[in-house]
Here is the input.
Amino acid sequence: MTPDIRDILFRALADPTRRALFERLCREGEQTVGALTVRAGVSQPAVSKHLTVLKQAGLVRDRHEGRLTHYSAQLGALAPLIDWTSQMAGFWQSRFDHLENLLRRMDQ
Amino acid sequence: MTNTATETRSVVVEREMPHPPEKIWRALTQPHLIEEWLMKSDFKPVADHRFSFRADWGAVDCQVLEVEPHKALSYTWAAYGLESVVTWTLTPTSSGTLLRMEQSGFRPDQEQAYQGAKYGWQQFFAKLDEVLTRTD
Here is the structure.
């Protein structure tokens, strides 16, 4: 994984409107631009522009059906952001500290 | 970003402690002691026993895999889309015990990735400023 992939994902999700669109697609599944616009609080061209950025980041995929474009979330694209090993390493290190404290207290 | 679903990764924490294995074993297996250093749980040192760890941020679903008193203990650990196995190994040393914890699991994908990402959100935003500054 190169840092560039993270940069692209961070930038794509840094915008609150884009993040909201992405989260909606994650929660509710595939939707048309029109359906997304209804609750986005911005114009349809603005929604389309945000979706393009998400698409370039690999976070969404579009599917054309007649005149409608359906968007769906590509959850696998988030994988580079989820470095669970470093999160858990920190977690266990601190738990080991607590465990050592407890063991010392058990002596008494 | 392909074929990430089957990639195994692990976290290892090892520490030598000036305590006998029997005592560390108690801290690893008795719920009232586990709670003091890890989390609340309904753990029992019995193979196949299903239990959970609970904290204010949520719960971890677990199942005991292996129990070898004073030597080894392993259980599954499922939380925030992370499916993993935690294995404790106790090795006596001249001055106490070498305690080793290995958590191995799989990189999440699809729905799991989203659940995991929610957990990672905080870290994500902490890095955001840095990245934006660098790339602007």
